[in-house]
Design brief:
elongated; alpha/beta; seven-stranded mixed β-sheet; about 170 residues
Length: about 170
């Protein structure tokens, strides 16, 4: 199940889950997998046309704004301030309520979006998106593996949880 909102009560949570969270979620069986990093991404064509050069230049480019209240700290004004750019006032560009839609808009040359390292690495590797590696902000958000205290884990669930840990550390 992929879901942005959290589940209801403890009994309805999955046995093993991965959550994007800040700060570390409470619980006895929580394992931090990795921190998230954010950086500007756009299509190679948009970058070639001069739509992406430096952090200071971005305030004049069409920015793709991800409007998800839960992730408010991962927005353009925060990123721009981290790189010394005054981000007061209105920033140009459309507002989008879904990360995948924001990435699609960036891939199709509609502007510059903030990419999250672990969610857009494949698009970067395939050349559908480009970024400037020098402008990476490590956030205090991270991905955590959580084992539900409301469920007795089966051997298969425990093996699955262990496998995730091995996969993350082998990257």
């Amino acid at each position: 199940l992929a879901s942005d909102p959290y589940f209801g009560d403890e009994s309805s949570t999955p046995h093993v889950s991965i959550r994007f969270h800040r700060p570390e979620p409470p619980g006895a069986d929580v394992r931090k997998l990795f921190h998230e990093e954010i950086f500007p991404v756009c299509s190679p064509e948009f970058a070639e046309a001069g739509g992406r050069s430096s952090a200071a230049d971005l305030v004049r480019a069409p920015l793709l704004h991800l409007d998800v209240p839960r992730h408010e700290p991962l927005i353009w004004p925060l990123w721009l301030r981290a790189f010394g750019v005054d981000a007061r006032g209105s920033l140009p560009g459309p507002h989008i309520v879904n990360f995948n839609e924001a990435m699609y808009a960036a891939e199709t040359g509609q502007g510059v979006s903030l990419g999250w390292r672990h969610l857009c690495d494949d698009a970067l590797a395939a050349g559908r998106l480009v970024c400037h590696e020098g402008e990476v902000l490590q956030t205090d958000w991270a991905y955590y593996q959580m084992l539900s205290p409301a469920h007795q884990l089966s051997d298969q669930a425990r093996a699955f949880a262990d496998w995730i840990g091995v996969e993350v550390t082998s990257e």
